[in-house]
């Protein structure tokens, strides 16, 4: 990339020769952080002062990190070797490992900052983070992460989910703490395996949907339960989302059960999930069945993605790069054709924006000029090549290059 001249007019920016997702090459004008004009590349003899020539780089809207845990990662901290569960995957045991690890971790604000900069550096400028709330930690995690969010508000839009990591009924006092967390500034109320963790689906969901209604908050529930049990819980969540008029405001994260059931059952579930406007989040985990992305999208379900855990007590993987996540989703889904690779990209971009209810998303006049410029001919190539050479712009201002924050 070469800059044609130094400096630019206050609150205005121009980018030349941007390759858009549809293959056209365009000049982009930005005023007050939003696209004011997008026109076919003019190759003008005298471009506007300060214009940046993108020289045909692919320009994509900034990625959407739809599920992360800013409070529990050790990214940038001491390496924590993974501890296996004693008798197969067990959420309760993993939570206990996590509590032990966190006692010895670097300060939370520092670890959260490391993770945010990792994500922004790779091009995610909107994020949804779950933040642990339970009787042991109270609101300490929420208060810390709210402070971190405030410090980074000029660089990234962060939604926070008050997340009952130790259950709601299993950890007395948590319902009241979740309510406090929403009052303090969390945007959504979370949940955790209402059946296997709290052993009372109705009571668990009564609290979650009750708090959402009381505080006008969205809902994003962690659901690891498998097979028929998990499907039953999804059906309960879908029914409540419809009954409470919360279409577009409810998400189920992981929803592994959707990867366990027959094609016929999945088609029926997909139809009702789509009709209720419930979004499904997957990170395409390596050793689990996971929601079939293509079949759900075909049914009209919004499927979005997140890194979930990065270098934490749950697993050692994660790099904060949502383009790499699109690659993993495509790889695990058996996506080979261009339209399928484009679907994998959609999961980490436009579908993520829909799931999070983002305003002004995309490369279009009037949208926020939050974008990534990278070296790829088109979206399918970007998904398979995952170029590290990329620049990240917030409101038209360069904030990261090649994975590193600028300034
Ligand atoms: Zn999670």
Can you put this structure into words, describing what you see?
This protein has 407 residues and is an alpha/beta fold. 34% of the residues lie in helices and 23% in strands. It is built from twelve helices and 18 strands. The strands form three sheets. Strands 7-8-9-10-11-12-13-14 form an eight-stranded parallel beta sheet, sandwiched between helices. β3 and β4 form a beta hairpin. The longest helix is centred in the middle third of the chain and has 17 residues, at 227-243. The two termini are 18 Å apart. Bound molecules: zinc ion. Residues 67, 69, 130, 222, 253, 308 line the site of zinc ion.
- Range of helix content: 25-40%
Alpha carbon gap, first and last residue: 18 Å
In what range is the share of β-strand residues?
Answer: 15-25%
- Which molecules other than protein and nucleic acid are bound? zinc ion
CATH H-level homologous superfamily name of the largest domain: Metal-dependent hydrolases
Cα Rg? 21 Å
Summed over residues and divided by their number, the pLDDT gives a mean of 95
State the secondary-structure class.
alpha/beta
CATH architecture designation of the largest domain: Alpha-Beta Barrel
Please, how many helices?
12
Count of strand segments: 18
Question: What is the name of the CATH topology of the largest domain?
Answer: TIM Barrel
Could you state the order of secondary-structure elements as H and E? EEEEEEEHHEHEHEHEHEHEHEHHHEHEEE
CATH class of the largest domain: Alpha Beta
How many domains? 2
EC number: 3.5.4.1
GO molecular function: cytosine deaminase activity; metal ion binding
Keywords: Hydrolase, Metal-binding
InterPro entries: Amidohydro_3, Metal-dep_hydrolase_composite, Metal_Hydrolase, Metallo-hydrolase_Enzymes
């Amino acid at each position: 990339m070469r800059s044609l001249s130094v400096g630019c007019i206050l609150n205005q920016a121009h980018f030349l020769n941007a390759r858009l997702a549809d293959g056209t090459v365009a000049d982009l004008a930005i005023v007050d952080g939003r696209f004011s004009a997008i026109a076919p590349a003019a190759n003008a003899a005298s471009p506007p002062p300060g214009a940046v020539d993108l020289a045909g780089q692919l320009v994509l809207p900034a990625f959407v990190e739809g599920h992360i845990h800013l409070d529990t990662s050790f990214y940038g901290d001491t390496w924590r070797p993974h501890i296996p569960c004693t008798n197969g995957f067990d959420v309760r045991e993993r939570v206990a490992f996590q509590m032990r690890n966190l006692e010895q971790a670097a300060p939370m604000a520092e670890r959260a900052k490391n993770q945010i900069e990792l994500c922004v550096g790779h091009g995610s400028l909107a994020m949804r983070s779950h933040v642990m709330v339970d009787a042991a930690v109270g609101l300490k995690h929420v208060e810390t992460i709210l402070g971190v969010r405030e410090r980074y508000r000029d660089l990234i839009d962060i939604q926070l989910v008050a997340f009952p990591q130790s259950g709601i009924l299993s950890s007395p006092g948590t319902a009241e703490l979740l309510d406090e967390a929403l009052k303090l500034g969390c945007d959504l109320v979370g949940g955790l395996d209402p059946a296997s963790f709290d052993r009372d689906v109705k009571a668990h969901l009564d609290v979650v949907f009750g708090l959402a209604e009381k505080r006008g908050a969205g809902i994003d529930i962690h659901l690891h339960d498998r097979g028929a049990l998990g499907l039953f819980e999804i059906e309960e969540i879908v029914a409540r989302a419809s009954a409470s008029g919360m279409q577009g405001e409810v998400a189920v994260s992981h929803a592994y059960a959707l990867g366990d059931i027959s094609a016929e059952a999945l088609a029926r579930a997909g139809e009702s999930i789509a009709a209720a406007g419930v979004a499904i989040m997957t990170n395409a985990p390596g050793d689990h069945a996971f929601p079939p992305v293509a079949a759900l999208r075909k049914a009209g379900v919004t499927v979005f993605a997140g890194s979930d855990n990065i270098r934490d007590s749950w697993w050692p993987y994660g790099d904060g790069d949502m383009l790499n996540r699109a690659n993993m989703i495509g790889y695990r889904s058996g996506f080979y054709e261009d339209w399928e690779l484009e679907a994998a990209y959609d999961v980490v971009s436009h579908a993520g924006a829909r799931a999070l209810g983002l305003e002004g998303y995309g490369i279009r006049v009037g949208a926020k000029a939050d974008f990534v410029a990278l070296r790829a001919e088109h979206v399918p190539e970007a998904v398979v090549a995952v170029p590290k050479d990329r620049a990240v712009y917030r409101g038209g201002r360069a904030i990261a290059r090649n994975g590193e924050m600028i300034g």
